[in-house]
Amino acid sequence: MISDELLRAIRNDLPMRVTIRRLGRQGPPAKQVEGYYRFLCPGCGELRATVNPRNNLAHCFSCGQNFNNIDLLMSLGYDFLAAVECLEPWLQTHQEHRTRQE
Question: Does residue 18 carry a pLDDT above 80?
């Protein structure tokens, strides 16, 4: 069973930038533009999906879709459980890295 705490952490604490980097070529093209992290929207194909740094939620300013880390993987063909199983170790690695830096 997947805990609510794990889902919250995957959505909010794992930066979308980390997820996209870890996906490599499988992930959408992305770049930093005007101080915001943007990536190619899986919904409409425009480079207008912009990550809000306050809540780690991406919003596409072309088609209006919203994405969190799980949504992004599901848009790439993962089912929900596979997405969570993929993201959980990335979250743990990110948290360990942050802890070492503090």
Answer: yes
